[in-house]
């Protein structure tokens, strides 16, 4: 699927996840170095999502809820949105999904990640993780050599590890998706548009 070097590097990323424990405190949210954002980052309401590219519940949110939330709140400047990357099994797939999203360029990050989520079921059903991710990368303008270099980039993997470590150790995150609005954790697991509407109304007061 991926090179041994890539799998070994990504396996190392998962070591810190066991340290998360059950402490649900923290999760102060807000963008930090390397986090990807959308919308008005000066808006009164800020939503942070901790998500994994291999998490089925994250894919459900992305595919079924996020488009409506984005149109209603992010695109209108009412909410600033921050994506905080996390890794769930299979970690090498999650890492590769995030890496190709970044390699496509900042302006294409969310578009490529959206494609990863929308093709997640195909990857899990067929087991052809590399083939599906390569196709997504190529649709974003990458060649196969560029894809191979992207998913085995040690500097990028180290940066990803730092972001995951920060989520685990500082924000005390141990599951995805986790949603934090204005520093308050509003949900772990899937969330509905109705719940987001209510959280936005409360945060806007």
Short descriptors:
205 residues, alpha+beta, 5 strands, 13% strand, Glutaredoxin
Q: What's the helix and strand layout?
A:
Elements (H helix, E strand, L loop, with lengths): L3 H10 L22 E4 L5 E7 L4 H9 L1 H9 L4 E7 L5 H13 L5 H10 L1 H7 L2 H11 L4 H8 L2 H16 L8 E4 L2 E5 L4 H12 L1
Parallel strand pairs: 2-3
Antiparallel strand pairs: 1-3, 2-4, 4-5
> Which secondary-structure class do the elements indicate?
alpha+beta
Straight-line N-to-C gap: 50 Å
Largest sheet: 5 strands, mixed
Strand order of the largest sheet: 1-3-2-4-5
Summary?
The protein is α+β, with helices and mostly antiparallel strands. The protein is built from 10 helices and 5 strands; from the N terminus they run αββααβααααααββα.
Would you kindly provide a written description of the structure presented here, covering whatever features stand out?
This protein has one domain (4-15, 25-37, 56-204): Glutaredoxin (3-Layer(aba) Sandwich), CATH 3.40.30.10. It contains 10 helices and 5 strands; from the N terminus they run αββααβααααααββα. It has helices at 4-13, 56-64, 66-74, 91-103, 109-118, 120-126, 129-139, 144-151, 154-169, 193-204; strands at 36-39, 45-51, 79-85, 178-181, 184-188. It has a 5-stranded mixed β-sheet. Mean pLDDT is 88; it is low at 11-28.
């Amino acid at each position: 699927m991926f090179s041994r070097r890539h799998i070994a590097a990504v396996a190392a990323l998962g070591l810190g996840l066991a340290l998360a424990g059950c402490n649900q405190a923290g999760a102060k949210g807000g963008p930090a170095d390397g986090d990807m954002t959308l919308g008005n980052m000066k808006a009164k309401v800020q939503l942070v999502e901790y998500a994994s590219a291999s998490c089925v519940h994250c894919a459900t949110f992305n595919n079924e809820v996020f488009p409506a939330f984005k149109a209603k709140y992010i695109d209108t400047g009412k909410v600033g949105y921050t994506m905080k990357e996390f890794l769930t099994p299979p970690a090498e797939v999650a890492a590769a999904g995030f890496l190709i999203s970044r390699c496509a360029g900042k302006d294409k990050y969310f578009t490529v990640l959206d494609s990863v989520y929308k093709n997640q079921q195909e990857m899990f059903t067929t087991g052809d993780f590399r083939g599906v991710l390569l196709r997504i990368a190529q649709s974003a303008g990458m060649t196969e050599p560029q894809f191979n270099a992207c998913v085995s980039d040690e500097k990028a993997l180290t940066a990803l590890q730092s972001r995951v470590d920060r989520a685990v150790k500082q924000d005390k995150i141990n599951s995805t998706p986790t949603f934090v609005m204005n520093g308050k954790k509003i949900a772990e697991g899937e969330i509905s548009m109705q719940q987001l509407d209510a959280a936005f109304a409360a945060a806007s007061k």
